[in-house]
């Protein structure tokens, strides 16, 4: 049975002791530590790397919400508090559950059930992602792209080209051009070569967007895309293009 390494963070010692006593009834919970304020909680989370934290909302100097903002990787969180006005905010930060004091065993049971359900869902999602990593992507696949504060979930077929830009790759779709910290070669390995063609050292082009092909200097070619972008195809890649796509 999976055990969840658990940390309790609450400024009241009696509240921590009561919660530890209640959690003894749950074999899947392994209590690995406790903290009495937000600052200590941050350090304990970093040092112990728990799977789950029971976190009080209202603590002196730093609230539970303020504490979470200072964490990089946030484990599963169950808020435990005497006040119910924070419930909506708790779920806005993707908390697993929100339990009111005094804590009842039945309510804890519901919260831990949610924890196990989330774990099962994450396991299934991870298996799906691993399968996806092992296969070549198609133009119908959608990919998640994060660029600073902006996030996109874009269909691969809507990406017209990718451009190497130092240690990054610039992804072109619509009016957007987010940067991803990866090499162009890593993209080439995952993309369908029947659709995404490596034009030169800097560019991979979605051939579905190519409207015009012209002879270019030194035996190369030039692609003109529907967007108006013009991409030079190196002589070596022009030979490959002609060999593969000639009628």
Write the layout of secondary structure elements.
Blueprint: E1 4-9, H1 13-23, E2 29-35, H2 38-48, E3 52-56, H3 64-69, E4 76-81, H4 87-92, E5 97-100, H5 105-134, E6 142-147, E7 150-155, E8 161-165, E9 168-172, E10 179-180, H6 184-190, E11 196-198, E12 203-206, E13 210-215, E14 221-225, E15 230-233, H7 235-245
Parallel strand pairs: 1-2, 1-3, 3-4, 4-5
Antiparallel strand pairs: 6-7, 8-9, 8-12, 9-10, 11-12, 13-14, 14-15
Description:
The chain has a 5-stranded parallel sheet with strand order 2-1-3-4-5, with helices on both faces. A 5-stranded antiparallel sheet has the order 10-9-8-12-11, with no helix packed on it. Helix content is about 35%, strand content about 30%. The longest helix is centred in the middle third of the chain and has 30 residues. The chain has about 250 residues and is α/β, with parallel strands linked by helices. The chain folds into 2 domains: about 130 residues, Response regulator (Rossmann fold, 3-Layer(aba) Sandwich); about 100 residues, OB fold (Dihydrolipoamide Acetyltransferase, E2P). It is built from 7 helices and 15 strands. Helix 4 links the parallel strand 4 and strand 5.
Kindly summarize this structure in a few lines:
By secondary structure, this protein is α/β, with parallel strands linked by helices. It has helices at residues 13-23, 38-48, 64-69, 87-92, 105-134, 184-190, 235-245, and strands at residues 4-9, 29-35, 52-56, 76-81, 97-100, 142-147, 150-155, 161-165, 168-172, 179-180, 196-198, 203-206, 210-215, 221-225, 230-233.
């Amino acid at each position: 049975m999976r055990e969840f390494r658990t940390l309790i963070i609450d400024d009241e010692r009696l509240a921590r002791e009561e919660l530890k006593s209640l959690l003894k009834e749950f074999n899947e919970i392994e209590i690995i530590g406790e903290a009495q304020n937000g600052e200590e909680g941050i350090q304990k989370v970093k040092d112990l790397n728990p799977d789950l934290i029971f976190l009080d909302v209202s603590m002196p100097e730093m609230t539970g919400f303020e504490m979470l903002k200072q964490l990089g990787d946030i484990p599963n969180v169950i808020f435990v508090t005497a006040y119910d006005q924070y419930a909506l905010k708790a779920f806005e930060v993707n908390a697993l559950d929100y339990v009111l004091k005094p804590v009842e065993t039945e309510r804890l049971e519901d919260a831990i059930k949610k924890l196990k359900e989330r774990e099962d869902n994450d396991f299934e999602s991870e298996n799906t992602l691993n399968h996806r990593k092992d296969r070549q992507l198609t133009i119908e696949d959608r990919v998640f792209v994060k660029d600073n504060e902006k996030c996109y979930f874009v269909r691969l077929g809507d990406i017209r080209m990718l451009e190497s830009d130092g240690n990054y790759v610039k992804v072109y779709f619509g009016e957007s051009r987010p940067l991803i910290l990866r090499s162009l070669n890593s993209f080439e390995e995952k993309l369908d070569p029947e659709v995404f063609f490596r034009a030169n050292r800097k560019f991979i082009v979605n051939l579905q967007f190519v409207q015009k092909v012209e002879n270019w200097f030194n035996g190369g070619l030039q692609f003109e895309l529907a967007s108006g972008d013009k991409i030079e195809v190196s002589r070596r890649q022009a030979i490959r293009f002609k060999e593969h796509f000639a009628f």
